[in-house]
Design goal:
The structure holds two protein chains of two kinds.
Chain A (H helix, E strand, L loop, with lengths): L3 E4 L2 E4 L5 E7 L5 E7 L5 E9 L2 E4 L6 E3 L9 E3 L8 E8 L8 E3 L3 E5 L1
Parallel strand pairs in A: 2-11
Antiparallel strand pairs in A: 1-3, 3-8, 4-5, 4-9, 5-6, 7-8, 9-10, 9-11
Chain B lengths: L2 E5 L2 E5 L4 E8 L5 E7 L5 E7 L5 E3 L5 E5 L4 E6 L8 E9 L4 E4 L3 E6 L1
Parallel strand pairs in B: 2-11
Antiparallel strand pairs in B: 1-3, 3-8, 4-5, 4-9, 6-7, 7-8, 9-10, 9-11
The chains are: A mainly beta, B mainly beta.
Chain lengths: 114, 113
């Protein structure tokens, strides 16, 4: 079945550690996105990529980094510079880069900083 | 710039009653609008989308939405609520120039028996 997978589902991190969240899609989609979701704040865009080897900052990119070396993969690293990383992280992909089509979402990773 | 406002962070209806979730948008270009649903601890799923064809859009699970340009609205409705409709609903508008979407803050729908 085609879809988007995110791993791990739950992740615990100590303060000062970097962690990487995985996002893989087998939908052959060009564009991929990372969002952060906090209660009552909807989805906020962290980074997005419309083509391999290229990505753009979203609205809240500080403290995060990404790479897009393969079409199928768009990992997100939460660095120690992110002041409040505890949140639910969602990855999405989209066919084409224009935004005229819907996004397909993964099941999410819940990150907790201890 | 584009933005989305969802009026009402929580909506409660009785089973069998009309569901109305409100969404107003702002966009400098003709908008592409979407409604998504999210169940607890899951990703979002598409309910329906408006992409400049028919103004009344039908989606899954009996939901529909009407695009009203004069009111800059894209409200989501369902004639008769079911217990399984309890979830969080997000309205989104896409900037086709930038290829990215802006999401509203979400509306949590509660369905009472």
């Amino acid at each position: 079945d085609g879809g988007i997978t995110q791993s791990p589902k739950y992740l615990f991190r100590k303060e000062g550690q970097n962690v990487t969240l995985s996002c893989e899609q087998n939908l052959n989609h060009d564009a991929m996105y990372w969002y952060r979701q906090d209660p009552g704040q909807g989805l906020r865009l962290i980074y997005y990529s419309q083509i391999v080897n290229d990505f753009q900052k979203g609205d809240i990119a500080e403290g995060y980094s990404v790479s897009r070396e393969k079409k199928e993969s768009f990992p997100l690293t939460v660095t120690s510079a992110q002041k409040n990383p505890t949140a639910f992280y969602l990855c999405a992909s989209q066919s084409g880069a224009s935004g005229r089509r819907e996004q397909f979402f993964g099941p999410g990773t819940r990150l907790t900083v201890l | 710039a584009q933005s989305v406002t969802q009026l009402g962070s929580h909506v409660s209806v009785s089973e069998g009653a009309l569901v109305l979730l409100r969404c107003n948008y702002s966009s400098s270009v003709p908008p592409y609008l979407f409604w998504y649903v999210q169940y607890p601890n899951q990703g979002l799923q598409l309910l329906l989308k408006y992409t400049s064809a028919a103004t009344l859009v039908k989606g899954i699970n009996g939901f529909e939405a009407e695009f009203k340009k004069s009111e800059t609205s894209f409200h989501l409705t369902k004639p008769s609520a079911h217990m399984s409709d309890a979830a969080e609903y997000f309205c989104a508008v896409t900037d086709t120039n930038a290829g990215k979407s802006t999401f509203g803050d979400g509306t949590t729908l509660t369905v009472k028996p």
